[in-house]
UniProtKB/TrEMBL annotation:
InterPro entries, per database record: AAA+_ATPase, ABC_transporter-like_ATP-bd, ABC_transporter-like_CS, Metal_Ion_Import_ABC, P-loop_NTPase
Family matches, as CDD domains: ABC_Iron-Siderophores_B12_Hemin (cd03214)
Protein's UniProt name: ABC-type cobalamin/Fe3+-siderophores transport system
Domain ABC transporter: 2-240
Record-stated family: Belongs to the ABC transporter superfamily.
Pfam families in UniProt: ABC_tran
GO molecular function, one term: ATP hydrolysis activity
Keywords attached to this entry: ATP-binding, Nucleotide-binding, Transport
Length: 266
């Protein structure tokens, strides 16, 4: 379990906190979505969790261990990170990218061993992209690249997987495909998955828990169907919405008054 308590962070030279008393937990085998508009502090929170930035107050515990007391190598064995986008200059193969997930377990002057190759192959098969293993990473589609990065994270064998806007640049089909795979892997491999996202519908469909952030502060958290409502969405995003129930999920539809007025005047 990931436990964050009373976390505060302020950028150097700033007079105002970027993160203000952040407190929540993320459970084993579940997907926790950090939902909020751009600039709300989601990416800053991730950087604090993995130790890139240091909060001036509060605590972060991963399976009971204080993150700020761990070495870089120890953190690399606990957290895998999937960025929004990942571009490379050289035509490394998909397999080359995936096996870099084994870096925390390979010595500085050593090469990957049998176990490392096996872990990489298992990850490729789990993501159903084994057929791409010899293809240049920079020649495959955006959706395929995202699956490769998730395979790399899986090969890392870290109990916590952090995904920063993993589907923001993908088309609708690949958004669904990638998020389904994240949910499946979290459940099957007992991974604590933490996903930043700005689309409330995607959060509602795929997250077991949602933590809603605005202006660096948590304003609500809980199960999607319990917390996503008209009042909350208007407070966070500043738009009116209607909630539509579909197979037990809350789907959010914006109320487009300007379109109604246009149709009435037609």
């Amino acid at each position: 379990m990931l436990e964050i308590k009373k976390l505060c962070f302020r950028h150097k030279g700033s007079k105002e906190d970027t993160l203000k008393d952040i407190e929540f937990s993320a459970e084993l085998g579940k997907v926790t979505a950090i939902l909020g508009p751009n600039g709300s502090g989601k990416s800053t929170l991730f950087k604090c969790i993995i130790g890139i930035w240091k909060p001036y107050k509060g605590s972060i515990r991963a399976n009971g261990k204080e993150i700020n007391k761990l070495s870089h190598l120890e953190r690399a064995k606990i957290f895998s990170v999937i960025p929004q986008e990942h571009e490379i200059t050289f035509p490394y193969s998909v397999f080359d990218i995936v096996i870099t997930g084994r870096a925390p377990y390979i010595g500085v002057f050593s090469s990957p061993g049998k176990k490392d190759y096996e872990k990489a192959e298992i990850a490729l098969k789990a993501l159903e992209i084994y057929h791409l293993k010899d293809k240049p990473y920079n020649k495959i589609s955006g959706g395929e690249r995202q699956l490769v990065l998730i395979a790399r994270a899986l090969a890392q064998s870290a109990p916590f997987m952090l995904l920063d806007e993993p589907v923001s640049h993908l088309d609708f089909r690949n958004q669904i495909k990638v998020l389904l795979k994240i949910k499946e892997l979290a459940y099957k491999n007992k991974i604590t998955a933490l996903v930043t996202i700005h689309d409330p519908n995607l959060a509602s469909l795929f997250a077991d828990k949602i933590v809603v952030i605005k202006d660096g502060r948590i304003i609500e958290q809980g199960k999607p169907n319990h917390i996503l409502n008209e009042k909350l969405i208007q407070e966070v995003y500043g738009i009116k919405i209607n909630i539509i129930q579909n197979n037990g999920f809350n789907l959010i539809c914006p109320v487009l008054d300007f379109l109604k007025n246009k149709q009435m005047g037609a």
